């Protein structure tokens, strides 16, 4: 009888313990610069959408938060974790782009200015609710209470002084049409947003073109960076993420270009063999299926001519 | 002599043609098979048949433009008709294709899906048996009721019926790929009545029909279609929509 009581007590403890808890551990990667590293997996009910890298910079006067994560709950846990590192006030949240895994934690920072490129805000107005709905479908109850909260400030490219620290802001477009990259000049940490994926297949909904993306990578690589925080994947202190991005984008472009020239169907292209050198790039098959849907129509049209009479 | 039920069962077992491809076991989970078997195939004899290959991505990245590809070339020379449908779509039927002798029983097209659904293609062979190819697609949904992309573009009417196309040489055929500018309105978007391409024929230069294709508004806007023809016969594609507009292309 005593055993049964103990088991029952344990069971009810398990039920009452919150199973949907993000384990966000801030990791210091440079003086005043902190990273929350997510996994390189896809969205799932198991990970609550914590597949993304977010971070924050502690300046003399307060904290600059970079991206707010995939859900309200994530944003709240992130804010608590920041408060354990510093008691300085939050000065600003900066969003790298409008994708749901980067912005749906905004509600946790509703009392702080939330800044983004004007293009990011426009895309969020246009697509935010649909993307949030899809996140509920993908990760379920982790999303409870999450709604789109729009940015309150516009960012422009150039040098921005915040709390005695200089941030170089770049307004690029290769991933979504409005992509912010942030270089912390003092530490040399480059928050590349989703312009850089590393060891995780890049995603292409909304890319203006792969050529645009490649040009953005050139700009980023020429900055005086010391470390790269990709939007997804591990932190790097060498140029390996740039090399992998170029290689992967070039491969993707080649697959679709030659496919269009040979009259390949989408269903044939999505079965293309993934080169051995991308074996370590997570989700490459899944993202190839998505990218063919996003981009192949443009390649097809370029390979065809008007034939109506 | 009198047969008891056991003998009947034994006889029935021998009577069923026992090959390794066809079976009565549905390869996908479906609650609608019996309904469509009755409604579209008239309850006629059928087998689920792996030799009819129906390809689709495992999930619909864009539910308004889902690529499907059908290959029944295992039955080349015997195919009378090919019917395709998406079981859980509000407008399930996709096409009714009669390939003729100079056109392979293969076809690729893009469709709309409203939700995750089984997809089917039923291939009628000359012996009167339907061979059914099946697959399943996952989808966030909404492809059938989403607002038109074509209609959001100013001046789309001026481009109506324009055809982009090209002929490609494959190992065993010439592939004719076309994309036709048309909104393919399915009547499910508020205030916009049905307006879609419903007939197509592939003809040779003398006007003989090589293949006939009936289209339904489950087909995506700006339909993208591939047909594989035997040899390099010059062809004309004729199209008509339900408002009577006719379009032609040469390939």
UniProtKB/TrEMBL annotation, chain A:
<comment type="similarity">
    <text>Belongs to the metallo-beta-lactamase superfamily. Class-B beta-lactamase family.</text>
</comment>
<dbReference type="InterPro" id="IPR001279">
    <property type="entry name" value="Metallo-B-lactamas"/>
</dbReference>
<feature type="domain" description="Metallo-beta-lactamase">
    <location>
        <begin position="51"/>
        <end position="232"/>
    </location>
</feature>
<dbReference type="InterPro" id="IPR050855">
    <property type="entry name" value="NDM-1-like"/>
</dbReference>
<dbReference type="Pfam" id="PF00753">
    <property type="entry name" value="Lactamase_B"/>
</dbReference>
<keyword id="KW-0732">Signal</keyword>
<dbReference type="InterPro" id="IPR036866">
    <property type="entry name" value="RibonucZ/Hydroxyglut_hydro"/>
</dbReference>
<protein>
    <submittedName>
        <fullName>Quinoprotein relay system zinc metallohydrolase 1</fullName>
    </submittedName>
</protein>
<feature type="signal peptide">
    <location>
        <begin position="1"/>
        <end position="17"/>
    </location>
</feature>
<dbReference type="InterPro" id="IPR030811">
    <property type="entry name" value="SoxH-rel_PQQ_1"/>
</dbReference>
<dbReference type="GO" id="GO:0017001">
    <property type="term" value="P:antibiotic catabolic process"/>
</dbReference>
UniProtKB/TrEMBL annotation, chain B:
<dbReference type="InterPro" id="IPR030831">
    <property type="entry name" value="Fuse-rel_SoxYZ"/>
</dbReference>
<dbReference type="InterPro" id="IPR014880">
    <property type="entry name" value="SoxZ_dom"/>
</dbReference>
<feature type="domain" description="Sulphur oxidation protein SoxZ">
    <location>
        <begin position="174"/>
        <end position="250"/>
    </location>
</feature>
<dbReference type="InterPro" id="IPR032711">
    <property type="entry name" value="SoxY"/>
</dbReference>
<dbReference type="InterPro" id="IPR014756">
    <property type="entry name" value="Ig_E-set"/>
</dbReference>
<dbReference type="Pfam" id="PF08770">
    <property type="entry name" value="SoxZ"/>
</dbReference>
<protein>
    <submittedName>
        <fullName>Sulfur-oxidizing protein SoxY</fullName>
    </submittedName>
</protein>
<feature type="domain" description="Ig-like SoxY">
    <location>
        <begin position="38"/>
        <end position="144"/>
    </location>
</feature>
<dbReference type="InterPro" id="IPR038162">
    <property type="entry name" value="SoxY_sf"/>
</dbReference>
<dbReference type="InterPro" id="IPR013783">
    <property type="entry name" value="Ig-like_fold"/>
</dbReference>
<dbReference type="Pfam" id="PF13501">
    <property type="entry name" value="SoxY"/>
</dbReference>
């Amino acid at each position: 009888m005593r055993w049964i009581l103990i088991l029952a007590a344990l069971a009810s403890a398990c039920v009452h313990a919150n199973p949907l808890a993000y384990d966000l551990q801030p990791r210091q990667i440079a003086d005043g610069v902190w990273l929350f590293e997510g996994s390189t997996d896809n969205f799932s009910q198991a990970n609550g959408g914590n597949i993304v890298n977010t971070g924050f910079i502690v300046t003399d006067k307060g904290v600059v938060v970079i991206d707010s994560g995939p859900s309200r709950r994530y944003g709240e846990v992130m804010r608590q974790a920041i408060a354990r590192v510093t008691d300085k006030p939050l000065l600003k949240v900066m969003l790298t782009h409008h994708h749901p895994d980067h912005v749906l934690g905004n509600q946790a920072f509703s009392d702080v200015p939330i800044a983004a490129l004007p293009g990011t805000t426009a895309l969020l107005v246009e697509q935010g609710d649909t993307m949030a709905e899809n996140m509920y479908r993908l990760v379920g109850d982790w999303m409870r209470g999450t709604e789109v909260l729009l940015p309150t400030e516009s960012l422009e490219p150039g040098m921005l002084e915040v709390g005695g620290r200089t941030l170089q802001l770049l307004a690029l477009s290769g991933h979504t049409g409005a992509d912010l990259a942030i270089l912390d000049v003092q530490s040399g940490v480059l928050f590349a947003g989703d312009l850089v994926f590393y060891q995780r297949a890049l995603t292409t909904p909304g890319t203006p073109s792969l050529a645009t993306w490649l040009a953005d990578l050139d700009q980023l690589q020429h900055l005086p960076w010391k470390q790269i925080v990709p939007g997804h994947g591990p932190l790097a202190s060498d140029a390996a993420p740039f090399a992998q991005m170029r290689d992967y984008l070039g491969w993707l472009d080649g697959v679709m270009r030659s496919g269009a020239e040979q009259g390949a169907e989408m269903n044939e292209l999505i079965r293309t063999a993934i080169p051995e050198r991308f074996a370590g790039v997570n989700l490459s098959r899944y993202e190839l299926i998505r990218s063919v849907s996003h981009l192949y129509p443009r390649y097809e049209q370029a390979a065809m001519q008007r034939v109506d009479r | 002599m009198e047969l008891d039920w056991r003998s009947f069962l034994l006889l029935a077992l021998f009577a069923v043609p026992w090959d390794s491809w066809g079976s009565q076991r549905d390869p996908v989970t479906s609650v609608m098979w019996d309904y469509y078997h009755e409604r579209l195939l008239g309850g006629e004899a059928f087998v689920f048949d792996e030799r009819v290959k129906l390809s689709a991505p495992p999930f619909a990245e864009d539910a308004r433009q889902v690529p499907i590809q059908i290959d029944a070339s295992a039955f080349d020379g015997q195919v009378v008709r090919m019917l395709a449908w998406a079981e859980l779509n509000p407008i399930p039927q996709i096409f009714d294709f009669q390939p003729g002798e100079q056109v392979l029983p293969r076809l690729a097209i893009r469709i709309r899906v409203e939700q995750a659904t089984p997809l089917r293609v039923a291939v009628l062979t000359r012996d009167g048996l339907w061979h059914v190819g099946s697959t399943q697609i996952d989808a966030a949904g909404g492809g059938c009721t989403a607002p038109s992309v074509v209609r959001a573009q100013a001046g789309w009417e001026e481009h109506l019926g324009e055809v982009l196309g090209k002929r490609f040489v494959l190992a065993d055929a010439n592939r004719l790929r076309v994309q036709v500018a048309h909104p393919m309105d399915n009547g499910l978007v508020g205030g916009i009545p049905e307006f879609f391409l419903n007939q197509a024929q592939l003809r040779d230069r003398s006007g003989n029909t090589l293949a006939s294709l009936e289209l339904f508004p489950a087909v995506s806007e700006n339909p993208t279609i591939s047909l594989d023809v035997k040899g390099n016969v010059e062809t004309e594609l004729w199209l008509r929509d339900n408002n009577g507009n006719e379009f032609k292309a040469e390939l």
